[in-house]
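Entry 14. Ran structure prediction on the chain below.
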Amino acid sequence: MAKVSKKKASSRGGVSTDRVLGFCTAGERTLLASSEATSLANATRASVQALLVRARGIRDKWRGLFGQQTRLQKRASRSAATAANARSLAKADLFAGAVKRFEEHLTTLLPAAKPAAASKTKPKSARTAGHRITRAAVKANLGQKAATINRTLAASASTSQSLGASASTSQSLGTSASTQPVAVTAPKAKAPAAAAKPSKAAVRKLPPAKASTQAIRFDLAQQRSAKTAANSGRLKVKGLTTRRAGHTLAAGKRAQARRDKRSR
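Output, C-alpha cells:
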C-alpha cells in the first residue's frame, strides 16, 4: 500500500491528519497517496483526470454528510454527534486538498495537449466559410440541373404542339376535299324587300321593374308542425314508436295486475 506523508497538523474540525487517515478506507488512502507530488510526476493526463473525478466525488460525499450532521446537531446537541461531525469535516478538508493538488497538476499538463486539440477543431469563421463554399457549389449544380430539365420540357412541348398542328391541318384539308360540292350555277334571286318598320302605336314602353317589397313571413304554427312531422318520422325510422307503444302497454298491464292483486 502506498504511504501517505504524515503531517502533525490539525484540520479545520480540530482532528489531526494522522487520526483522519486512520478513519479512511484503503481505497481512500491510496487516492490520497496518488495526489502527492511523487506519484503525480509520472502520471498521465487521463489518469489524473480519473483520479480528480474520484476525489471530487468523495469530497462531495463528506461535505454532504457534514451538512446533514450539522442540521441534526442543531436539533439535539450531543457529544457523539459533535465528534462525528468533526471527523466528517476533517475528511472533507483532506479530500478538498487532494482535489486542489490534482487540479494544479492538470494545469501543468494542459499546455502540451492544447495544440492537438486546436488542430482537430476549426474556428467558427473557417467553418462558416467552408460551409458557404459548399452550399454555393450545391446551388450551382442544382441550377444547372434545373436548366437542363426546363430545356427538355420546352423542347418536348414544342414538338408535341407542332405535331398536333400538322395533324389538325391534314385533317381539315381532307375534310374540305371530301365535302366540297360540285359548283352549280343557280339563277339569281331577287333581293328581299326591306322590312317594314313597326308603327309607333305598336311599340309600347314597359314600366321599369320594381323590387319586390313583399316581406318574408315566418309562421310559427307551420314551423311547429314541421318539427313535429320530422320528429315523428325520425321515431318511425328508428322504431322508437313501436317500442314506446310496447312499453306503455306493458306498464298498463302491470298496473292493472297490481290493482287486481289488491282487490283480492
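Helices lie at 17-23, 26-34, 37-40, 45-75, 79-120, 124-179, 220-238, 240-263. Will compare against last week's run tomorrow.
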